[in-house]
Amino acid sequence: MTEVFRQGVVITGIHSRARRDRSYEVAFTAIPFSENYGFRPQPGDRPVMAGTLPARVTSTRTNDIYGHIDLDGRYKVNLLFDRDHWSPGEESLWVRQARPYAGDTYGLHLPLLAGTEVAIAFEQGDPDRPYIAGVLHDSTHPDPVTIRNYKRNVLRTPANNKIRLDDARGKEHIKVSTEYGGKSQLNLGHLVDSEKQPRGEGFELRTDSYGAIRAGKGIFITADAQSKAQGQQLAMEPAMSRLSAALVEMQSLAASAQQAQALAADVGRQQTLLQQKIEQLQKEVLLGTAPQGVALASGDDMLLSAQENLTLIAGQQLDMGAQKDFTLAAGKQLSLWSQNGAKWFASRGDIDIQAQGGHITTWSTQDTHISSGKKLVITAQDELTLICGGGYIKIKGGNVEIGGPGKLLIKNTGIKKAGSGSMQGVMKSFESGSFDEKFVIRNSLTKEPLANKEYSITMPDGRIVSGVTDLNGSTSLNTSDVIDDMTITLIKGK
């Protein structure tokens, strides 16, 4: 043993004890000293960080208005007990933030700005693994919800984008708002202004910029009530009832007009629209309805257009007025029919009725009266004939012929004869007009325009016009005296 101590030992532990009735004793453990091996004591326990430490988020930019984060969404923080001087944004390594929802490129992340107070916790108490456990308000960063608005639930960003849910009983409302576009907002429920004063109820979608409503399968707008949100989204029974009633009225009018040999409305087309497109939005249509009325007004122009049929139906009276001119134009025929009479009036100016390429026929089952406050002039280019009861007066080629199965009675004080004379009437001449029209060729299934397709159009007079559709599927402009009976054929393989 003496030899061992002579060579040297490494003390690995010391144990001391003492009592009043005994001497002070020291015992130790040791191992022989050797250059071939050394003593490696058991490592002590690492420090454990309990609780959280206050810190503030930092940034390399002064007054940074955005969150200073790295590619992994981590922050730099300055622990409040650290009094050393550091460059802004270099007070720590990157620190993760704990969030209520996270995953692979999804989650909830509301970036923190420099100066925000945070609570730093440590994973399993390891001081080398800090993370942001929570975010705190303070006197310089006040809470958006206080005793002043304690009934509200608020999510507000530094740029004042916000979602506000007010739980005041009987005054519940939701507000989604952004400053862009002059406060673009969606307001639901009990609507209030900035002073919390009522300004409406229901919902409001507003912006000072542009607005668009788009639905690829159709849009249904209605003022019919659906209490407590009970019922289907496309519950449109009241609207369909109104449209069906209007269709029945139009069917009755069309039948009467057809019986009177007037042009009848295309009721079949309207039935197809109602039953195969509008009902339950089977096609891409827009349906608007209200039980007590609909009003559309424009401070300038208004355009109503339909590539196929445009139908107006009124259960009682249809009124149309214009402060200045009122025009009606039809590419084919124009038919006006009334069950109980028709009246045309012009308080000032002329009434001009022309058949520029055909006949004019007037007929009545009762009397026909033609009156004039001044002159009445009847002019015919070739022949004028008056017929009644078999008697007639015919004027043709400058000659006047009077005939009849009975007697000719002339009551006058006398008959004066003179040499021949004539009077020429002024006849109007009309130039024939033509229609210009082009067509869009679409795929019958997808309704997409067919671009760069060769086609041929057979005109009513037998002419064939060939061409290639443009990028919008449109044909070239075609000219014809009529706009019907054209046949368009796509050339296969082209």
Automatic annotation (TrEMBL):
Coiled-coil annotated spans: none
Stored InterPro entries: Gp5/Vgr_OB, T6SS_Rhs_Vgr_dom, T6SS_Vgr_RhsGE, Vgr_OB-fold_dom_sf, VgrG2_DUF2345
Start and end residues of each DUF2345 domain: 276-412
Superkingdom as given in the UniProt entry: Bacteria
Species of the source: Klebsiella michiganensis
Domain (Putative type VI secretion system Rhs element associated Vgr): residue spans on this chain: 156-257
NCBIfam families (UniProt xref): vgr_GE
Residue ranges annotated for the Gp5/Type VI secretion system Vgr protein OB-fold domain, each copy included: 84-137
Protein known as: VgrG protein
